[in-house]
Write a structure and sequence with these properties.
two-stranded antiparallel ribbon, 50% helix, 11% strand, single chain, 3 helices, globular, Arc Repressor Mutant, subunit A, mainly alpha
Length: 72
């Protein structure tokens, strides 16, 4: 994992912990990356970090389905 990807993951995680519902668009706009890169980051959180990510269709963003889950 590159440092750039790590920074994107930390940013996404921080947004969730702050009660926001980030989407792939959040990553794309903040870091100026492609949609494919943003989706790859989200997939990595699920597969490698076992993040309990769920998508809220009403709020149009992701959240953790398990309370108090932490990346670190």
């Amino acid at each position: 994992m590159s440092l750039k990807q790590f920074k994107r993951l930390v940013y996404f995680h921080k947004m969730i912990h702050e009660g926001q519902y980030p989407s792939s668009r959040s990553i794309r706009e903040h870091f100026h990356v492609t949609a494919r890169t943003a989706y790859r980051d989200i997939k990595l959180l699920r597969s490698q970090f076992m993040a309990p990510l769920e998508y809220d269709h009403i709020k149009h963003g992701y959240y953790y389905s398990k309370q108090n889950w932490d990346l670190f």
